[in-house]
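Quick one:
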Amino acid sequence: MKKIILTVSVFLLSQAFSTGCCMQSCIDTMMSINYGPITVILNKKFDQSKIKRIAAFPFDDSGYSGFDKGSGGTVSDWFAVELLKTGYYEVIERNQVEKILKEQMLQQTGIVDVDTAVKAGRILGVQGLLMGSAGGTTNSFTVVVKLIDVETGNTAWSVVYETNHPKRAVPKLKLELDKYYAEKSGQTVK
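Output:
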């Protein structure tokens, strides 16, 4: 059945691309996306250096109705990879997190709340939990990402980006973290 659906899909896409109608529609869709603001909020009362090892949880995309609905895990992975590149965090991959959730029977609906995530985080031996949510449609969406402290359940930082990609959001977060660590050590960052 999957093979038949795949074959039909490939055929229809090839026909659409050969006539140019789908290609123009795809280009129009891509051109109509306006990248929105990226907001980074560091919890000023939280010692950011406490968290070095984090676990990436699948993002809740129940409020998202775009064509790629169900991609909360993918967005979580993108964000985790970009965070790993900053050098500030060691990241436990989402598949390991999901394995623990299943083993401990902590995940019932596919959506993980903070209390459940904290339990799983303790089992995984991490200090922080990368959690998030997405809402909107393909061309107009908002993603909220938070780093939660396993010990207290408090938010260390949050990033909100609208109609954007994690590759654009994490550099802004890194800049804020660079400033935080520089101020903590008595240096300045431009």
